[in-house]
Amino acid sequence: QNILTVYFLVGYSAVALNHVIDFKEKKQEITKPVSPSELFPSLPIVQGTSKRIKVLTRLTLVVSDPSHCNLLRSTSANIRLYDIIAVFPKTEKLFHIACTTLDVDLVCINVTEKLPFYFRRPPVNMAIDRGIYFELLYTPAIKDSTMRRYTISNAISLMQICKGKNIVISSAAERPLELRGPYDVANLGLLFGLSEGEAKAAVSTNCRATMLHGETRKSACGVVYTVKKPRKVEEEETAVPACKKAKTQA
Amino acid sequence: MVRFKNRYVLCEVVSEDPRCRQCIEDRALGLAVRDAITRVHGDYGLACCSISFTVKYLNAYTGTVLLRCRKDSYRLLCSALPFVRYLESRGQRYPCFLNTLHVGGTIRTCQKFLIEYNRTQLLRLLQNCTNEEERQCIQKSLLSCSLTEEQSQSGDEDDDDDGTE
């Protein structure tokens, strides 16, 4: 909770709380996310505007095996409760699968060790077309010098392939002193090889796009197409409960 | 016209420890920033950035810092500022971080930005105020914000709030 207050002080308008699921251990149940209203009785207001700060919930799946991805396709109700879903692929094949077929919002790029695989252009381009963003963490870079080297080298190799598009920089801060303000994070983007406009977008517009991507993923499970018929009124009435039913089933 | 162009970077020192604010001094801060530049950019970075590097203004009550550097090397400085993790003074280490607020070409633009920023901060303090007397103090200082007399006003008010909170 302390961390969140510092975030709001520094000027962020939306924060996502991360929950990591690692599959190395035995079968883990996906628990329900902590509701943000439990942490804050009333959310404070963004600095400078009069809107309330959004606190979202986020799930990160650390996958090292293709069978773990089945969890995403399952209709477990708890997954749907998270706003943003991210996947952390450990092998090249999984990276390819995540970029092309998996239904996620973010693909995390490892910053704490040397990447075991090189990025290739086709899956990265497909991910950009699908609207999936690549995520880099910056807190390990602040803490430790060797991690800083890995972060910068991995980030630059990613930039060379994707030309700076679809990048989101986020922190994995565990203590309130490990986070940095948005202007500072955009300056860190310069170190990673982004241009100045791209770096600012990586903190602002790309994050917003990820949130919207998560929302569309949550809500658009099916599209109801209403056709105008002569008996228009009845048709609309039957269409409305069908929408409601689809949402509750999902 | 030939003259040296500078960039002024306005930062705020954010820390959990309330004692940290009282021992912010310009030498300690300068050393911390130079140390961060050395760690990130090496000897070349330190040499480039320290051509015209000084701490121009320091406000211990609000934790506001104004740094100056050359226009050619301000990117090196700005990209190294997130790596400042602690301030060291008189043998004590205080963990903190610097939050960059504004980069300007002259001191006057930074001052104008600082006035607006302090005004928003005072508004925010006003919302969290519990005491009626504090509320009136803050409202009075908000109404009298101007370029010449702002610095002393906001410094006093924040001091009051920090003291009474």
UniProtKB/TrEMBL annotation, chain A:
Coiled coil: none annotated. InterPro entries: Pol/histidinol_Pase-like, RNase_P_p30. It is found in: Nucleus, Nucleolus. Keywords: Acetylation, Nucleus, Phosphoprotein, rRNA processing, tRNA processing. GO terms for cellular component: nucleolar ribonuclease P complex. The keyword Ribosomal protein does not apply. One of its GO terms (molecular function) is RNA binding. One of its GO terms (biological process) is rRNA processing. Gene3D superfamilies: Metal-dependent hydrolases. The keyword Acetylation applies. Belongs to the eukaryotic/archaeal RNase P protein component 3 family. Component of ribonuclease P, a ribonucleoprotein complex that generates mature tRNA molecules by cleaving their 5'-ends. Also a component of the MRP ribonuclease complex, which cleaves pre-rRNA sequences. Component of nuclear RNase P and RNase MRP ribonucleoproteins. RNase P consists of a catalytic RNA moiety and about 10 protein subunits; POP1, POP4, POP5, POP7, RPP14, RPP21, RPP25, RPP30, RPP38 and RPP40. Within the RNase P complex, POP1, POP7 and RPP25 form the 'finger' subcomplex, POP5, RPP14, RPP40 and homodimeric RPP30 form the 'palm' subcomplex, and RPP21, POP4 and RPP38 form the 'wrist' subcomplex. All subunits of the RNase P complex interact with the catalytic RNA. Several subunits of RNase P are also part of the RNase MRP complex. PANTHER family: RIBONUCLEASE P PROTEIN SUBUNIT P30, RIBONUCLEASE P SUBUNIT P30. This is Ribonuclease P protein subunit p30. The lineage of its organism: Eukaryota, Metazoa, Chordata, Craniata, Vertebrata. The gene is Rpp30.
UniProtKB/TrEMBL annotation, chain B:
Pfam families: RNase_P_Rpp14 (PF01900). Gene3D superfamilies: Ribonuclease P, Pop5 subunit. One of its GO terms (molecular function) is ribonuclease P RNA binding. It is found in: Nucleus, Nucleolus. Keywords: Nucleus, rRNA processing, tRNA processing. It comes from the Eukaryota. One of its GO terms (cellular component) is nucleolus. One of its GO terms (biological process) is tRNA 5'-leader removal. The keyword Nucleus applies. PANTHER family: POP5 HOMOLOG, RIBONUCLEASE P_MRP SUBUNIT. Belongs to the eukaryotic/archaeal RNase P protein component 2 family. Component of nuclear RNase P and RNase MRP ribonucleoproteins. RNase P consists of a catalytic RNA moiety and 10 different protein chains; POP1, POP4, POP5, POP7, RPP14, RPP21, RPP25, RPP30, RPP38 and RPP40. Within the RNase P complex, POP1, POP7 and RPP25 form the 'finger' subcomplex, POP5, RPP14, RPP40 and homodimeric RPP30 form the 'palm' subcomplex, and RPP21, POP4 and RPP38 form the 'wrist' subcomplex. All subunits of the RNase P complex interact with the catalytic RNA. Several subunits of RNase P are also part of the RNase MRP complex. Component of ribonuclease P, a protein complex that generates mature tRNA molecules by cleaving their 5'-ends. Also a component of the MRP ribonuclease complex, which cleaves pre-rRNA sequences. This is Ribonuclease P/MRP protein subunit POP5. It comes from Hypocryptadius cinnamomeus.
